[in-house]
């Protein structure tokens, strides 16, 4: 396990294959929400922070991560829109909807009605908030242009937030792998917190 963590930074950034790997991981994680993309960006930021040119490396990590997240969101929304016109799109749309818990979907639709596309920014920052809001946008038949207008600042804010977590982790530890381990652990903990809280609340309600 320790060896895997130590090797992880070299596989992410920097280097000839580092930034393309970061790009592909974030795009894939945005299209298929099984990859912890926030942890990937935080880990990449730690390595960039310890590089020979930290300012330039961090800027590149930010640009690559934000661009990849935006393209992934765009592709996912486009596939969801195709659900009304093709069988493949329908299955993809239903899969997306199955990923959104009913109560969170209802809340997302209410917030979308109240705040419009600005809710997309918050959805990217709240753990497990992106998919319910995206499904709400699809159900409300939001045009692609409107979705893009809200998703651009959402992806920029998301990339900056998780990069900041990585920078904080990198500044606390002298070795890059230690900062990566701390940053990845923190982002995974943040991502798991809402699910744990809902389970505890359900357990209390069932007693």
Query: What order do the helices and strands follow?
Result: HHHHHHHHHH
Rg result: 18 Å
* N→C terminal distance: 39 Å
Number of helices: 10
Which class best fits the helix and strand makeup?
Answer: mainly alpha
Q: Strand fraction band?
A: under 5%
Q: Would you report the number of β strands?
A: 0
Overall morphology? elongated
Main pleated sheet? none
pLDDT averaged residue by residue: 78
Descriptors for this entry?
207 residues, mainly alpha, disordered N terminus
Provide a descriptive summary of the structure in words.
The protein has 207 residues and is an all-alpha fold. It has a domain at 8-95 and 152-206. It is built from 10 helices and no strands.
How would you sum up this structure in a few lines?
This protein is mainly α. It has helices spanning 2-12, 18-31, 37-49, 54-81, 87-98, 102-115, 119-125, 130-139, 144-172, 176-206.
Layout of SSEs?
Layout: H1 2-12, H2 18-31, H3 37-49, H4 54-81, H5 87-98, H6 102-115, H7 119-125, H8 130-139, H9 144-172, H10 176-206
């Amino acid at each position: 396990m320790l060896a895997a963590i130590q090797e992880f930074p070299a596989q992410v950034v920097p280097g000839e294959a580092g930034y393309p790997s970061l790009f592909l991981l974030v795009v894939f994680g945005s299209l298929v929400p099984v990859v912890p993309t926030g942890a990937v960006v935080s880990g990449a930021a730690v390595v960039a922070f310890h590089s020979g040119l930290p300012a330039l490396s961090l800027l590149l990590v930010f640009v690559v991560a934000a661009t990849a997240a935006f393209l992934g969101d765009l592709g996912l929304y486009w596939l969801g829109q195709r659900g009304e016109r093709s069988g493949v799109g329908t299955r993809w749309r239903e899969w997306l909807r199955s990923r959104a818990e009913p109560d969170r979907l209802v809340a997302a639709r209410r917030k979308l009605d109240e705040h419009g596309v600005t809710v997309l920014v918050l959805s990217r920052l709240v753990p497990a908030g992106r998919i319910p809001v995206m499904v709400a946008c699809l159900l409300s038949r939001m045009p692609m242009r409107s979705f893009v207008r809200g998703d651009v600042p959402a992806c920029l804010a998301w990339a900056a937030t998780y990069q900041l977590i990585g920078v904080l982790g990198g500044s606390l530890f002298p070795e890059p792998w230690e900062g990566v381990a701390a940053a990845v652990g923190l982002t995974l903990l943040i991502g798991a917190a809402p699910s744990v809280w809902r389970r505890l609340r359900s357990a209390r309600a069932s007693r």
